[in-house]
Amino acid sequence: MGTVGRYNKVPYLDDVECAKKYGRVWGMYEFKRPMLAVMDPDMVKTILVKECFTYFINRRIFPSIGELYDTLFFSMGDDWRRIRNTLSPTFSSGRLKEMFSIVRHHSRKMADRLRLKVDNDEVIELKSVFAPYSLDAIASCAFSVDVDSINNPSSPIFIHSSKLFRLSILVFICHGFFPFLVPLLELFGLSIFNKTSSSYLRAAVEKIRAERDGQDSRDILQQMIDSQTVSESRREKQNKGLNDHEISSQGILFLNAGLETSNSALSFLAYNLARNPEAMKHLQKEIDETFPNKGQVQYEALMQMEYLECVINESLRLYPPGARLEREAKETIKINGIIIPKGMLVTIPVYALHRDPELWPEPEEFKPDRFSKENKQNINPYAFLPFGLGPRNCVGMRFAKIIVKLALVEILQNYSFSVCEETEIPLQMDPQGLLGPLKPIKLKLVPRSDASEHVDMCN
Ligand code: HEM
C-alpha cells in the first residue's frame, strides 16, 4: 500500500500520527504514487480557495470509474464547472424552503419508527434508522418518489445506494501495483465502484424520468431536465445544461453522497450527545423554548437555533464524514516555498486538522461552546472543513443541514440518547471507506419524561 497506513491502518488516524511526527506538511506514497498531505491553514486556503480554478480544480482521476465519470464529484475542468453551475441553484434558499416540508414528512416517519423500537425496549442500531431516513428524504426531494426504506429496509434502491461507492479492492490494488492491467479490467467491464448497483440505480432514475413524461414537478430531477430545454447557444453562453447521461449520473450521486454522509453525521451526533448529557440537556432546553409543547418544527426558527448549530459543528469537527479531501495539481506551483509538481495528488487531512491541539484546545473533548457567537472568532476558518471549502465544496451542505437538524430536533423533543451496555466506548474506526465505526453504533433512547435520572445513571 506504499507508506499510507504505516502507523495506523485507518488512514485518517495515520494522518494524526504523521502530523505529530512531521508537522503540518508531509509526503507519503499510495502504492507507488507520491502524495502530499497539507494541513497548514494558509496553504489549505491557497489550495482550496485562492488557486482552486487555476491549479486545483480537480480531484484525483479515478481509474476504471465506469459510468460515474460525469457525476459532479468526479467530473473535471470545464465539464465540472458546467455541471456545478447547473446544480447550484437547486440548493438555493427558496428551493430549500420548498424541500423542508418534504424532509419534515420523513423525519416524522423516522420518529414513528423509533417509537416502535423504544416501546419494545430495543437497543437502537443508529445506522438502521438514520441511513434509510436520509435516503428517503433525498429520494423524495430529488425524484418525488417515496422509497419508504425506513419501513422497508430491503428496498433495492436503498440497498444499491448503500453499496454504490464500496470500492472494489481488487481493482484498486491492481491500479496501484499493476497499472498496465487497467485497460484489461476495463475491457472486462470491471469498475472500481459497484457496477451492479450503478446499473440498477441508473435504470431506476431513467424509469422515473420516463414515467413522468409531461407531468410538472419542482424536484431536483425536473430542474436538471429543464436545464436541457434552454437553447444550445444560451447553454454555451451560460455554461449550463446537462445531457441525458449526466442527469441520471447526478441522480445516482445524490442518493449515495447524501445517504452515507448524513447517516454518519447523525450517528456520531447521537453518540456524542449520549456521552455528554449536559450538552444534550442544553440542546433540549433550546428545542423546548423554540418549539414549545413539542410543537411542529418550522424552517426559520430551526435555522436560527444557535446551540443546535454549535452541537452539529462540534460533532462534525470530531467526526467529519469526509476525513480527507483531495485535489490534483493541474500545473506545477510553489506554495510557502514548497514545489508541488504537476499531477501531484494533494490531500487535506481534515480529521487530523480538526484535532490539531494548537488550533483546537483539548481537541478530543466534545465542547459545542467553541462555536458559540462569543468564541467562534477564535476559530481559523481554514481549520474547520466538514463540508470542504472553496468553489468545489459540498454542493448539498445546506440541504444536509436540514436533514440533520430536523432529525435531531424531532428525536430530542421526545427522547434522550443514552449509552448502554452495547455501546462501544471508545469506538474502533473502520479502515475502509468514509469515516465510520468498525461496528455499528448502538444506543438506547429514553422517553423524555423519565430521561433525566436514566441518563445520569448510564453515564
Ligand atoms: C452531513 C452531510 C454531508 C457532509 C458532511 C458532506 C461533506 C462533503 C465533503 C467533505 C465534500 C468534498 C468537498 C471538497 O472536496 O472540498 C462533499 C462534496 C459533495 N457533496 Fe456533500 N456532504 C454531505 C451531504 C451531502 C448531500 C445531502 C448531498 C446531496 C444531496 C451532497 C452532495 C455532494 C456533492 C455532489 C459533492 C461534490 C461537489 C463538487 O465536486 O463540486 N452532500 N460533501
Written description of the protein model:
The protein has 459 residues and is of the alpha+beta class. The protein has a single domain, classed as Cytochrome P450 (Cytochrome p450, Orthogonal Bundle), CATH 1.10.630. The protein is built from 18 helices and nine strands. A four-stranded mixed beta sheet has the order 1-2-7-4. Strands 3-9-8 form a three-stranded antiparallel beta sheet, sandwiched between helices. A two-stranded antiparallel sheet has the order 5-6. The longest helix has 32 residues. It binds protoporphyrin IX containing FE. Protoporphyrin IX containing FE binds next to α12 and α17.
Write a short abstract of this structure.
By secondary structure, the protein is of the alpha+beta class. The protein has a single domain (11-458), classed as Cytochrome p450, CATH 1.10.630.10. It has helices at 11-22, 41-50, 77-87, 93-119, 127-143, 156-163, 169-177, 182-187, 195-212, 220-229, 232-238, 244-275, 277-290, 299-303, 306-318, 350-353, 397-414, 451-458; strands at 25-30, 33-38, 124-125, 325-328, 333-335, 338-340, 345-348, 415-418, 442-447.
Segments where pLDDT lies below 50 for 5+ residues?
451-459
Summarize the helix and strand pattern as letters. Answer: HEEHHHEHHHHHHHHHHHEEEEHHEEH
Largest sheet: 4 strands, mixed
Number of helix segments? 18
Mean pLDDT: 90
Structural class: alpha+beta
Subcellular location: Endoplasmic reticulum membrane; Microsome membrane
Family: Belongs to the cytochrome P450 family.
Pfam family, one: p450
GO cellular component, one term: endoplasmic reticulum membrane
